[in-house]
Specification:
Layout (H helix, E strand, L loop, with lengths): L1 H21 L8 H25 L3 H23 L4 H19 L4 H8 L4 H12 L8 H7 L3 H15 L3 H4 L3 E3 L5 E4 L9 H21 L5 H14 L1
Antiparallel strand pairs: 1-2
Helix pairs in contact: 1-2, 1-10, 1-11, 2-3, 2-10, 3-7, 3-8, 3-10, 4-6, 7-8, 10-11
Length: 237
């Protein structure tokens, strides 16, 4: 019964926030509005992915998706609270592209061809040199979480969810049954978790954080609606 209530509420929140997104009047010349609206979409559909996965009892996969949702939230929160980092945030992609070219140079020519065709090393070096001339300060995900005022989430939730994303031994233990002596007595091929609220609550809570940021960035005046929805979430929890 409790899971049914969560499904009804999740449907309501996802529909509501998607409507907010669809009705945003985005100024295409405003970098903050452009990036924040895209990141808001990522947070919304990240929550929806978590919802669909837990409905199908794919709890490990839902944890991995929650991690991705948090990354989008950290970026959105950082841009919202520190809009002066906008250009550095864009330049963050320059660092990623430099790393890509550096890594691709280490691969075999056959594998490199899948990504860069017949581009010779000299051209790759030229591309790296050009990108290096454009790069600014590097913003790590932890730095973004700090600027978003969500560093505690980075140190706790994000860190723990990374165990599932990287298939750490500690996370894999959840699929093994052991006796008092630590001997393996069985395997749990299906995820042992049963309460979808363990994953839906934080996913929806983070979605409401994103909505709150978008509400301020766009001056939507939806403070009361956000509070009412947040109160419903806490009552359900």
């Amino acid at each position: 019964m409790q899971n049914n209530q969560w499904q009804v509420f999740a449907d309501e929140v996802l529909s509501l926030t998607k409507s907010v997104l669809d009705n945003l009047e985005i100024d295409r010349e405003d970098g903050l509005q452009v990036l924040s609206s895209i990141l808001f979409r990522r947070v919304i559909f990240g929550a929806k992915a978590v919802y669909l996965l837990v409905r199908n009892k794919l709890y490990t996969e839902a944890r991995i998706q929650r991690r991705g949702q948090l990354e989008a939230l950290f970026s959105l929160g950082a841009l919202y609270r520190s809009p002066d980092i906008l250009q550095d945030f864009v330049n963050k992609d320059v660092h990623r592209r430099i790393k890509f070219y550096q890594n691709i140079k280490k691969t075999s020519k056959k594998f490199r061809g899948y990504h860069l065709g017949d581009m010779p090393d000299s051209e790759i070096d030229k591309e790296i040199e050009e990108l290096n001339s454009k790069k600014g300060p590097h913003l790590s995900l932890e730095t973004l979480s700090q600027k978003a005022g969500l560093h505690d989430l980075f140190l706790s939730d994000y860190s723990m969810l990374s165990e599932a994303a990287h298939h750490a031994a500690k996370d894999l233990e959840r699929h093994v049954e052991v006796d008092k002596e630590g001997n393996i007595t069985g395997f749990l091929l299906e995820d042992p978790e049963t309460d979808m609220s363990n994953l839906l609550y934080p996913a929806l809570s983070h979605l409401l954080m994103a909505w709150d940021a978008i509400n301020d960035i766009y001056r939507l005046g939806q403070d009361l609606r956000i509070k009412e929805t947040s109160d419903k979430l806490e009552e359900l929890a």
